[in-house]
Amino acid sequence: MAYTINDFKKGQPRWCPGCGDHFFLASLQKAMAEIGVAPHDTAVISGIGCSSRLPHYMATYGMNTIHGRAAAIATGAKVANPKLTVWQVSGDGDGLAIGGNHFIHANRRNINLNMILLNNRIYGLTKGQYSPTSPRGFVSKSSPYGTVEDPFRPAELCFGARGHFFARAVATDAVGTIDVLKAAYNHKGAAVCEILQNCVIFNNGTHDSVYSKDGRAKNAIYVEHGKPLIFGENREFGLVQEGFGLKVVRIGENGITEKDILVHDAHCEDNTLQLKLALMEGPDFPIALGVIRDVDSPTYDEAVEAQIEEVKSAKKYHNFAELLETNEIWEVK
Q1: For residues 275 and 246, is the Cβ–Cβ distance under 8 A?
Q2: CATH top-level class of 5-211
Q3: Cα gap 267→264, rounded to integer Å
Q4: Pick from 126-135, 257-266, 297-306, 310-319: least confident
Q5: What is the reported pLDDT for 316?
Q6: Distance (Å, whole) CA 239 – CA 31
Q7: Where are the domains of the chain?
Q8: Contacts of residue 132, Cβ cutoff 8 Å, sequence gap at least 6
């Protein structure tokens, strides 16, 4: 059956005008329509925060759960019903602060979840405290003289937890966001999608370098498996390996040709170069967008299901009634 975006819409979103959540919601609904999984076979599970209101606006099964526990509840839903397509939606505070432990273990276990991290580098719902992804020195209501902490970098955390899929998109880039969401769905296992977005009230402009189409042309690189790592408004720059790191070169200068440019390998099990791509920052490097890592590996939920079937096949009983009949039985009159 073919679905449209309207099959996944529900209610009137209650976010601030211009909030990145509006852009992401529309992209998620469109991606789900293109993926084609029925709304009644889909669950959207969130924690607490502005972004965590998202399940209210989806015509699917949904749970707006408790702070930091979206990954844990999504895990339970997927293991209990492996046929269910589960989308977990968290903000950077909900997902990486109180929910950080669940985030790393969902990746380590490789549970077949689509894990969306909406990163605006701020606590928006509680009115502007710094979050685990806020940069050092960031001034906020809870750090009036600037934070004295280094932030989490979501890709680094995902890779460190032995994650097998990591992608990144910008909320205002509908095409790019839909592409990574569809890739996450097609990946078997924990699929982390970091979505860069602004909080227009408490942290507007935090991703300004790539928030517009022109900005992305200048300051981002769209990575694609099997394609050379070329970027720039006129595709005049590329990435090469220099020692243990990456280097930006201009194609046509110093004898550099397209053949010298690194080719992106999202399927390489060794994540060394993938992590270097994911951690690139301006102004010296472009910000990597698209599917950065996508590696096959056994999933937790499939392994649990297979183990249950194996144990059941070796047992003499397969339900409670048969279990009772394996023991001595007395008839009471």
Answers
A1: no
A2: alpha beta
A3: 9
A4: 310-319
A5: 81
A6: 30
A7: 5-211
A8: 92, 93, 96, 97, 100, 151, 152
